[in-house]
Specification:
Elements lengths: L6 H4 L7 E5 L2 E2 L5 E12 L9 H14 L5 E6 L5 E5 L5 H5 L6 E9 L19 H5 L1 H8 L7 E6 L20 E6 L14 E2 L9 H10 L13 E6 L6 E3 H13 L4 E4 L11 H11 L3 E5 L20 E8 L2 E11 L4 E6 L11 E8 L23 E5 L5 H11 L3 E5 L19 E3 L2 H11 L7 E13 L5 E2 L17 E4 L3 E4 L7 E4 L2 H17 L6 H11 L13 H4 L6 H6 L2 E2 L2 E3 L3 E3 L2 E5 L7 E10 L5 E9 L2 E5 L5 E8 L4 E4 L3 E4 L3 E10 L9 E11 L6 E10 L18 E2 L13 E3 L8 E4 L5 E10 L8 E11 L11 E5 L2 E3 L7 E3 L3 E10 L6 E6 L3 E3 L33
Parallel strand pairs: 7-10, 7-12, 8-10, 12-13, 13-14, 14-23, 17-18, 18-19, 19-20, 29-38, 40-49
Antiparallel strand pairs: 1-44, 2-3, 3-5, 3-6, 4-5, 6-11, 8-9, 14-22, 15-16, 15-21, 17-21, 24-25, 26-30, 27-28, 30-36, 31-35, 31-37, 32-33, 32-37, 34-36, 37-38, 39-41, 41-44, 42-43, 42-47, 45-46, 47-48, 47-49
Helix pairs in contact: 6-11, 7-8
Length: about 900
């Protein structure tokens, strides 16, 4: 799955003599993530379930007393991770991080999660069949195999559940009720404090509809509406509060409780964008897999943010990370358009503003927005007066904000606004940045073109529109697409992440009764319970006894989706492809590759491969036949589209770019016969000789297996992925002509240029550095040198505290890491050997390590600065080359060791 991290690095005690911070970072559902002040998770090296955990905690607390740090342990984790939630003042994080009794120290994240889309003003919707079941073979599993999840215990880690909804039997923990386990770890309003749990019993919250929607997808049953595993026994573990917030502590508590309650399958549609398998959540999930539990986790909704954006714990090798796929059919709100000849056309639309009343529009005239000077229909300036009463105004998307368009429509006398796009894209909602009493919704490209003809000057008749709050099924203009919002992998170590895809676009499922009973949501949050339901069906079949067997069945039976006529979507975007439940439940072929340091995988990942001579690489693919009779297989390879996150200058791009360059893959034998209940190995050779490493391409494809000479039916496929560049060449930092890194002002608002800066090392007058990283950095080292000899190391500032750093997002160029140095340094990894650097002229050296951990990929040296502690003022140049953005005082710690 990935190469191992150098043990010699991770074995060192962590030390940091400074403070890291990161301005608010775009989170897994499009909002913010912060660290909770003074709250940390300390990991220990003991195995979960070990009786030695008390000794480990005791030794650590004794060390804390030795260094004089006052602290309090609030929660001990012992079942799926040996760790503790601990509170102490942030200023002591460097001393705590270096203690030899701590295997890793992580700040407690507080992440805000929200669905990408949902119903508008609550209006009761009827139960409708799940359209996805046809395309995922779930219907076939229900009908032919009679598998419904009965007897399988499934944990849902989310925002709670409306147990009074008819899809869940209007019961709780009574005989025959499917909801038998429940626990609340977050409360209605999370303070971020790890002690803020309301205790066992009643996470039956309806203040946030997310959890009820997720539970319906997995196991709802209202007669007409049926989830994937409608007879599964449910454990409801509330980790998301009313506002959509979760914390690291809540996630860990819920994972532990789910294990204690004997859950077979765990579904988690939440996570933090740490991007590494070493986070506490990812470590816990990996241990759960080793303990026989199946964990399904959302990959995330940062698909517009380029590569390496899969969440933790989805990035863990213990989880199946789920991407989202758009299916050929979906439910949507709609409106009817009646033309002058009496014809009626049904057109899909998005929801409208939740704060406005439900739509009930009868025979409203349709008009086009025309600028007062004539021509364009963007409505970005005054538009011609609308004389028709209660008119619906057609406006083109783009050029200016929706609020501007709506204000001009209101001024002209319009009653409703329809927004269309001139290019084919996803139908999205219309939102305002202020309260406006104008309902607005968007429509599809095809719908917009139809409407545009009706309002064009050449149109010979009038058209009217009828709108209400009902839904209808529509056919997608392009069937089978990876959802635009679905997060990209691979993992920083080139693991195949996400692992597999499931339906996550416009999913119709249950909502709390006050939200309308049923409605639509988008996101990998929806794809996750769908796949968890499939896993429950496989567990019920009694054919798969280990998580690795369930994972192999799901991954290797999935259907990869074509992006072009002859190339698939990248495996770093769709994983193995769309889940096929029937094929997974009936497969007798298994492919479990032994990957260094991570156990078994269901794919071939060659990592950052450019370092090997000749750029040809070989792996072994074991093919196991669990049927009684022999099977003859024919092997072939079909490439996927290649992807890069960088331009030719090594600058991280806003969105992923594609290339038709494809790897060559050959087999030691193109066909083989595997006897019953036996295994046969195939040597697989990957050739990247024709792909320049300078393009930083992530290449992938799929090994297809067919029975005998029958080329019409693929019975199994194995994803293949490689990074076609050297790990040492990855541009962790932007090019040198970028604004970052830079010394920044004391208020963190501007880069400093010009004359040398003087710091008094008091108040806010400390050296501060802002930088952006374009690729997840496994380690950041900071050292100090004299200004006269900037390349010579005088002392260390931090060596191993800052591990497993996520890359910066592109959605706002102000997002950056900030480091403040407090003037202390050391010459050995012991607290007692720290000292204050004297006054003088210095530089800070920043060393950034790529995913391999043993390659010094980038070094950056600050401009010279002066420390003068007896100065009364700090001379700070007022020139500004860049606005780094607003800072927060929250520290973003990335510490820990690999105890997987």
């Amino acid at each position: 799955m990935r190469g191992c991290i150098a043990a010699s690095i991770l074995a060192l005690s962590a030390l940091a003599l400074g403070t890291w911070a990161q301005s608010q970072t775009k989170g897994p559902q499009g909002v913010s993530i912060n660290t909770v002040p003074n709250s940390y998770i300390v990991k220990f090296s003991e195995e979960p379930g070990s009786i030695d955990w008390e000794q480990a905690v005791g030794d650590f607390m004794a060390d804390m007393q030795k260094v004089g740090v006052s602290s309090r342990i609030t929660i001990n984790f012992t079942e799926v991770i040996v760790a503790a939630a601990i509170t102490f003042e942030d200023q002591y994080v460097d001393q705590v991080a270096m203690l030899p009794t701590a295997a890793g120290l992580f700040a407690v994240n507080q992440a805000s999660l929200a669905p990408l889309a949902s119903s508008s003003e609550p209006v009761e919707q009827p139960p409708l069949p799940m359209l996805a079941h046809t395309y995922t073979e779930v219907s076939r599993v229900h009908d032919e195999l009679k598998l419904t999840g009965k007897g399988v215990k499934v944990a849902i880690l989310d925002s709670g559940l409306d147990h009074k909804h008819p899809a869940f039997g209007n019961c709780f923990q009574t005989d025959g009720c499917r909801i038998q386990y429940a626990h609340d770890f977050i409360g209605d309003v999370s303070s971020g404090d790890s002690t803020n749990m309301t205790g066992p019993g009643n996470p039956l919250s309806t203040c946030n509809p997310h959890g009820t929607h997720v539970a319906g997808i997995l196991a709802g049953n209202d007669g007409v509406f049926k989830g994937v595993a409608p007879d599964a026994t449910l454990g409801i573990y509330r980790i998301i509060d009313c506002s959509g917030t979760t914390t690291t502590s809540a996630i860990l508590q819920a994972l532990e409780q789910a294990y204690k309650d004997g859950m077979d399958v765990i579904s988690i549609s939440a996570g933090t964008p740490s991007g590494w398998r070493f986070s506490p959540e990812s470590t816990a999930v990996y241990n759960l897999r080793k303990k026989g539990k199946v964990v399904i986790a959302a990959a995330g909704n940062d698909g517009t943010e380029n590569l390496w954006t899969v969440l933790s714990p989805a990035v863990s090798p213990g989880a199946l990370a789920v991407a989202s796929v758009d299916l050929p059919q979906y439910y949507s709100y709609y409106f009817n358009v009646t033309t002058a000849d009496g014809g009626i056309t049904q057109i899909e639309r998005s929801g409208h503003q939740r704060e406005l009343p439900p739509l009930d529009i009868v025979d409203a005239p349709l008009v086009g927005a025309q600028d007062a000077q004539g021509g364009a229909d963007y409505a970005c300036g005054p538009i011609a007066d609308i004389t028709e009463k209660n008119a619906i105004v057609l406006v083109q998307r783009g050029t200016c904000p929706y609020t501007t368009k709506a204000s001009n429509v209101i001024a002209a006398g319009g009653a409703v606004m329809i927004v269309y796009s001139a290019v084919k894209e996803i139908v999205g909602g219309v939102s305002y940045d202020q309260n406006l009493n104008l309902p607005a919704f968007s429509t599809s490209y095809e719908g917009g073109q139809f409407l545009r003809q009706l309002v064009s000057p050449s149109s010979t008749g009038s058209a009217t529109v009828n709108v209400d709050m009902t839904m209808h099924s529509f056919n997608a203009s392009i069937p089978y697409q990876v959802s635009y919002f679905s997060s990209w992998g691979p993992s920083p170590e080139s693991d195949v992440k996400p692992d597999v895809s499931a339906p996550g676009r416009a999913i119709y499922s249950s909502l709390p009764q006050e939200y309308g009973m049923y409605g639509l949501m988008d996101g990998t949050s929806m794809a996750t319970p769908y796949l968890a339901g499939v896993a429950a069906l496989l567990v019920q079949s009694k054919k798969f006894f280990k998580p690795t067997e369930v994972y192999s069945a799901i991954v290797n039976s999935a259907r990869p989706i074509l992006q072009t006529q002859d190339q698939y979507f990248s495996a770093a975007q769709q994983g193995a492809g769309l889940v096929q439940a029937y094929r997974a439940a009936t497969t007798t072929l298994h492919f479990q590759v032994r990957a260094l340091a991570t156990g078994y995988t269901d794919y071939l990942a060659f990592g950052a491969t450019g370092d090997e001579k000749g750029r040809k690489f070989e792996m072994t693919l074991p093919v196991s036949n669990r049927a009684s009779g022999a099977v003859q297989l024919t092997l072939s390879f079909v490439p996927a589209i290649s992807a890069t996150a960088f331009n030719e200058s090594g600058v991280l791009l806003p969105t992923t770019q594609y290339s038709t360059a494809a790897p060559k893959l050959t087999f030691s034998q193109d066909s083989l016969t595997v006897r019953g209940h036996s295994q046969k190995d195939v040597k697989v050779t990957l050739d990247l000789s024709d792909i320049p490493s300078s393009n930083f391409l992530v290449v992938s494809g799929y090994i297809h297996m067919r029975v005998g000479s029958d080329t019409s039916k693929v019975v199994a496929s194995v994803p293949v992925l490689s990074s076609a560049f050297k790990a040492s060449e990855i541009p962790v930092l932007p090019p040198k002509d970028s604004a970052y890194p830079c010394l920044i002002s004391s208020d963190l608002t501007r880069c400093l240029t010009g004359d040398k800066v003087t710091y008094t090392m008091s108040g806010d007058s400390f050296p501060k550095v802002a930088f952006r990283i374009q690729f997840p950095a496994i380690r950041i080292r900071v050292r100090i040198g004299h200004a006269k000899t900037p390349d010579h190391v005088t002392a260390s500032v931090t060596e191993n505290s800052y591990l497993y750093n996520q890359r910066n997002m592109n959605s706002d160029n102000a997002y950056f890491y900030a480091y403040t140095w407090n003037g202390k340094a050391y010459r050995s990894l012991k607290v007692e050997n720290t000292f204050d650097m004297g006054d003088g002229d210095y530089v800070l050296q920043f060393w950034f390590f790529s995913a391999t951990g043993d390659v010094e990929s980038t070094m950056w040296v600050t401009p010279p600065f002066t420390i003068k502690r007896d100065a009364t003022t700090s001379s700070v140049n007022s020139d500004s080359t860049e606005n780094p953005g607003d800072s927060t005082s929250d520290s973003e710690e990335h510490n820990g060791e690999d105890d997987d």
